[in-house]
Amino acid sequence: MSPAVPTLEREATLLEQYPFIIACDEVGRGAIAGPVVVGASIVYASHLGSAIPEGLRDSKLIAEAKRHDVADRARDWVSGSGLGWASALEVDQTGIMRALGTAALRAIETVAAEAGVDPRDGVVLLDGNYDYIQPAGGWGMTVIPVIKGDRDCASAAAASVLAKVARDDYMVEVHAQAPAYQWERNKGYGSAEHRAAIVEFGITPHHRASWAFEGNTLF
């Protein structure tokens, strides 16, 4: 079975009520090292008649070798995009949900500034089943969580792939600082090789130290 192809059906309904949509999706929530990153993309009614970029899917469904090309097409297709980052330290200090909200607000601020809009005038389509944006300070925004939004909604799929490519590239870069953890392969997630390196060498400043480590191990 081929991967699900996102559409603009949900966006079309929302654009009957709002002048624009800022779609957001996160990557890195379940990693044990590295930041969380939220991607944001803005679309208008003019996108409804345009072709969805070739290969655009939920980023988890795109082969790694193809993600950069798909991300380039997605970036050209949307009217603006932005990334918001929250570090491993921020995850430790505030908890994962508040860190996601902080990253999302940073992404929304970036894309709204690029597009010259006030995000309170539109609607935020957030992948998932929980609004973590308003508790982090986005109370003036209309936020609509959509389960499987990155799979079904093209605007969220665009945000997903942009965030995924940026975070993966970052983890490949920091791999050189601590090659034993193999971040260029596992991207900070808890693979067997990553966990084994923690057992042998302990944790680094890139690790989320508050995440159930026992004697510098994570189990």
Task: Give a description of the structure.
By secondary structure, the protein is of the alpha/beta class. It has one domain (9-166): 2-Layer Sandwich (Nucleotidyltransferase, domain 5). Helix content is 40%, strand content 16%. The strands form 2 sheets. A 5-stranded mixed β-sheet has the order 3-2-1-4-5. Strands 6-7 form a two-stranded antiparallel ribbon. Helix 2 (64-77) packs across helix 6 (154-175) and helix 3 crosses helix 4 (96-115). The longest helix has 22 residues, at 154-175. The chain is globular, with a radius of gyration of 18 Å.
Please tag this protein with its features.
Nucleotidyltransferase, domain 5; alpha/beta; five-stranded mixed beta sheet; disordered C terminus; two-stranded antiparallel sheet; 219 residues; single chain; globular
Average pLDDT: 94
Helical proportion?
Answer: 25-40%
Low-pLDDT parts are 214-219
Q: Globular, elongated, flat, extended or rod-shaped: what is the shape?
A: globular
How much beta, percentage-wise?
15-25%
Specify the number of helices: 8
Sketch the topology as an H/E string, one letter per element: HEEHEHHEEHHHHEE
The second-level CATH architecture is 2-Layer Sandwich
Distance from N terminus to C terminus (CA atoms, Å) equals 35 Å
